[in-house]
Amino acid sequence: MADAPPSPPLLLASTSPQRKAILEQLHIPFDVVAPKYEEETPADGDAVRVVREHARGKARSVADIAEDRPVVGVDTAVVLGDRIFGKPGNATDAEQMLEELSGKTHVVVSGLCLLTPGWEDVEHEATQVSFRELNPRELGTYVATGEWEGRAGAYAIQDRGASLVRQIEGDYLNVVGLPAALLVRLLAERFSGVYGFG
């Protein structure tokens, strides 16, 4: 009996090491390409609409080189009340963000776009994250690690940022950077058996 042909690698429109690590963890074959998309995250507004638009924009920006392979675009934001937290510009921004999140529950919302030449699915996932009360020394110590750089909400839950968290409700990997349960569901529905799901 002949072996099944290898699954065509997804094209991940992201250079995020966390997203790459999650796909590797799930044993989903993929190639990486940097998206040709400029994202602007407003300080307030409809976070779900924003992350869905960004995910779609990232995926579409590389679709011309995908050939027949599925493209995945992802965008993640941290939301507290009506405020959308993007990536901090410097250590002062990071400390202010973390101070605002201290002792509160925020939502990590990700948009995910899976597209091929024939169709496009855009969905989102939300995970609730509760921080414990952080004192000024803890805030300063964490900011000094530099983990906040390039992170929406100024923390990395998969690293030392785990120490800031009291409770999480929902998909942990969504907080890391890729809504894995959502991606697996879409792959199972659209490519049943091809990537090992469905």
What is the CATH architecture assignment? Answer: Alpha-Beta Complex
Largest sheet: 7 strands, mixed
- What portion of residues belong to β-strands? 15-25%
**Helix/strand order, N-terminal first:** EHEHEEHEEHEHH
For this entry, give a set of tags:
Maf protein; 198 residues; 7-stranded mixed beta sheet; alpha/beta
Any chance you could write out the topology, listing elements then pairs?
Layout: E1 10-12, H1 17-25, E2 30-32, H2 47-62, E3 71-80, E4 83-85, H3 91-101, E5 105-115, E6 120-131, H4 136-144, E7 165-169, H5 172-176, H6 180-190
Parallel strand pairs: 1-2, 1-3
Antiparallel strand pairs: 3-4, 3-5, 5-6, 6-7
Helix pairs in contact: 3-4
Question: How would you explain this protein's 3D organization?
Answer:
- The protein is of the alpha/beta class.
- It has a single domain, classed as Maf protein (Alpha-Beta Complex).
- The protein contains 6 helices and 7 strands.
- The protein has helices at residues 17-25, 47-62, 91-101, 136-144, 172-176, 180-190; strands at 10-12, 30-32, 71-80, 83-85, 105-115, 120-131, 165-169.
- Helix 1 links the parallel strand 1 (10-12) and strand 2 (30-32).
Brief overview:
It is built from six helices and seven strands, in the order E-H-E-H-E-E-H-E-E-H-E-H-H.
